[in-house]
């Protein structure tokens, strides 16, 4: 006869296995439901923000936002990227929690014994993957703080060009030669975004030392103002041009600086047209531009003085007629010329 205790142990095994399977199935089903709910909430929030940006810009699709303010485009890009990051975080967290719960159901004693091994493996992975963690964290801050966006012209130190893709670990930048650079976000220590706000066109024009400076400055200013009034270009120019005056004086040439504030994306086009008009203005004035052996720095490299970011105004500041400040000068003794007369003071 078969031992009743054996049948009892077999029945107990199947009952416990069935309970464990039901517990595992319940954990998996609950995890799937929770992940679905979180994904639904994330999609709902992202969709509401994107649709709000579209309705505010009065467009029907995301691509049409290129005709709307840049802030709306950047908002859509940033929101979708953050939504993708949140979904990935939810998926990874759900998988880890489900595995731990299943292991606690199937092998309750094994979980405690594997604690030390798990800590050692986690420490090893953390040490080996610290660069990846650094890239991901820095990428999240870059996206969340809206430091760069797709289509921006940026200088990341490691690469300079147009941003084609921004992810949590890698930023893709295509330079002027067409090379696509993959820059790790953890390696980015500084970001220069040349597509936000406004830009400044800085032109350093070299003229002969015997040229009439006042006439040259007036001719440069008139050429720049005519560009600012041109219907083709006036929408790209923010403020009226200014002449900052002499930047350097050498024995070969005088360098006069002209600046003009433009929209961020129109700096290069405005600078080319302005150089052409300045050349025509100098030709009409009869000023022959000198040939210099040294390279004249322009733009960011040439803005070396502290007041370059906040230049002095070209118009005179009105002074109260009752209070006029005059600098004190030390009295000068008249010099006696060689013939013994007295030289009048000037």
UniProtKB/TrEMBL annotation:
<keyword id="KW-1003">Cell membrane</keyword>
<keyword id="KW-0812">Transmembrane</keyword>
<keyword id="KW-0472">Membrane</keyword>
<dbReference type="InterPro" id="IPR011066">
    <property type="entry name" value="MscS_channel_C_sf"/>
</dbReference>
<dbReference type="GO" id="GO:0008381">
    <property type="term" value="F:mechanosensitive monoatomic ion channel activity"/>
</dbReference>
<feature type="region of interest" description="Disordered">
    <location>
        <begin position="306"/>
        <end position="346"/>
    </location>
</feature>
<feature type="domain" description="Mechanosensitive ion channel MscS">
    <location>
        <begin position="131"/>
        <end position="195"/>
    </location>
</feature>
<dbReference type="GO" id="GO:0005886">
    <property type="term" value="C:plasma membrane"/>
</dbReference>
<dbReference type="InterPro" id="IPR006685">
    <property type="entry name" value="MscS_channel_2nd"/>
</dbReference>
<keyword id="KW-1133">Transmembrane helix</keyword>
<feature type="compositionally biased region" description="Basic residues">
    <location>
        <begin position="326"/>
        <end position="335"/>
    </location>
</feature>
<dbReference type="InterPro" id="IPR023408">
    <property type="entry name" value="MscS_beta-dom_sf"/>
</dbReference>
<feature type="transmembrane region" description="Helical">
    <location>
        <begin position="20"/>
        <end position="46"/>
    </location>
</feature>
<protein>
    <submittedName>
        <fullName>Mechanosensitive ion channel protein MscS</fullName>
    </submittedName>
</protein>
<feature type="transmembrane region" description="Helical">
    <location>
        <begin position="113"/>
        <end position="133"/>
    </location>
</feature>
<dbReference type="Pfam" id="PF00924">
    <property type="entry name" value="MS_channel_2nd"/>
</dbReference>
<dbReference type="InterPro" id="IPR045276">
    <property type="entry name" value="YbiO_bact"/>
</dbReference>
<dbReference type="InterPro" id="IPR010920">
    <property type="entry name" value="LSM_dom_sf"/>
</dbReference>
<feature type="transmembrane region" description="Helical">
    <location>
        <begin position="88"/>
        <end position="107"/>
    </location>
</feature>
